[in-house]
Amino acid sequence: MTSESHSPTGTDDPTLGPPPGCPAHGLGPGGLHRLYGPEAEDLGALYEKLRAEHGAVAPVLLHNDVPIWVVLGHGENLHMVSTPQHYARDSRLWTAVQDGTAGADHPLAPHIAWQPICSHAEGDEHLRLRGAVTGAMSTIDFRSLRRYINRATQRLVNEFCELGKADLVGQFAEHLPMSVLCEILGMPEDYNDRMVHATRDLLKGTETAIASNEYVMGVLTQHTLRRRANPEEDFTSHLINHPARLTDDEVAQHLRLVLLAAYEATANLIANVLRMVLTDPRFRAQLNGGQMTVPEAVEQSLWDEPPFSAVLGYFAKQETELGGRRIRKGDGLLFGIAPGNVDPRVRPDLAANMQGNRSHLAFGGGPHECPGQDIGRAIADVGVDALLLRLPDTELDCKEDELRWRASMSSRHLVELPVTFAPRPPQDVMQRPSVNALPRQRPNWQVTTEASEPSPAPQPVAPQAPPTPEPAARLGAWQRFLRWWRGY
Ligand code: HEM
């Protein structure tokens, strides 16, 4: 173990850097880099600077200059998430929460605040809550799921195929996962533009986020009560009837967790894969030539642009060591998925194809490893494949350097992906994408969707958007925050 140059618990040696907040260096107290503000505009570049200066585990500052470690090494990240005896996801262990520097008024409070859900639980309570989630997931029939994803894709493509142009973020990537998740949860009637907008809005943490969160929570609570009274064959009913005996509140909170975790990550993944295929001639050529399948392109994207770039956070339960750093009990650590995925020790050549290698960090690892990864992969694989089959002549409708991203510490998503293609008529959504509907010869996309379905009946298009959520009721700021924090 090397000697310490910094402790996130706040015992910095001031001689090691410029004076606190030195404007000449643009660094924060203790000469530490900030993961927010101007320097963090290009987080990828900042992580590489930190790796060069500090190695696999670097001391940094979060908003309000709260100290934390960012874990940059692939092996160090894996070790942290897989060692529950040393690291927990329970933020109440964090010194910065205990001393109030990362309290309820911290800008990242919604990411930090402890909630009674499986992501923050440990030990037996984690097993109980996660067991109910994975038990309900195990009842999903993947064959029917893939068929549904294909149909939902056809329905979305039908809405814009006659126009010859679309924004594949706003009109496709942000809709497909919501449609599929509402179906999985057993509430397909709740899939509509309002649900999509409210979920996106609450994830962005905008002024209307509290009202949007109330809307989503209201829908999920009502659905929980409906299924408690009349169970059906869906995820929600299996969650309710699991031997773990979740309360109605626990069920609704876990529906929210599943909906949000799954929606944001899968929407990002679909947008990233489509952008990669449309802008990187290598991928398009390999897909066209059959040397690469859509699932392989998805896996490459999970290495290069993980849908969640970091998770805040893990917290040290006892004094320990990570990447040569002394970690004190109560220290906070940022799970660095994006920097871990480009650790030069596992990827000396970033341009090299990672085909067949699934050891990226995109789904986490250890006891909290994402239990929904096969669902996320299925939505991206089938959706992208079916879209490219329907519109194989899709081209980017702007210069690549005009594409814009919205980035935060935890994720980075494309704002728009404008494309053009030859206009063509809508297609029967129950059918597998058909070559006959296409105006010119198609490339040889790798088909992974299920076989055609028997019924020729056309499906209705998605319902019209109801008005956006009403502003939050007139509660005090603190009450509004607590409701938002707890997900009510
Ligand atoms: C591309 C899609 C997805 C990605 C990249 C992704 C990624 C992740 C990550 C990084 C974590 C946190 C791991 C940690 O705390 O160490 C997580 C947790 C979780 N994910 Fe996913 N996820 C995806 C899709 C889904 C889907 C489709 C579902 C459900 C249908 C889901 C449900 C969950 C749940 C319930 C947890 C909490 C597990 C626990 O703490 O025990 N995710 N996911």
Automatic annotation (TrEMBL):
InterPro entries: Cyt_P450_B (IPR002397), Cyt_P450_CS (IPR017972), Cyt_P450_sf (IPR036396). SUPFAM superfamilies: Cytochrome P450. Residues 455-470 have a biased composition (Pro residues). It comes from the Bacteria. Gene3D superfamilies: Cytochrome P450 (1.10.630.10). Residues 1-30, 423-473 are annotated as: Disordered. Belongs to the cytochrome P450 family. This is Cytochrome P450. It comes from Streptomyces siamensis. The lineage of its organism: Bacteria, Bacillati, Actinomycetota, Actinomycetes, Kitasatosporales.
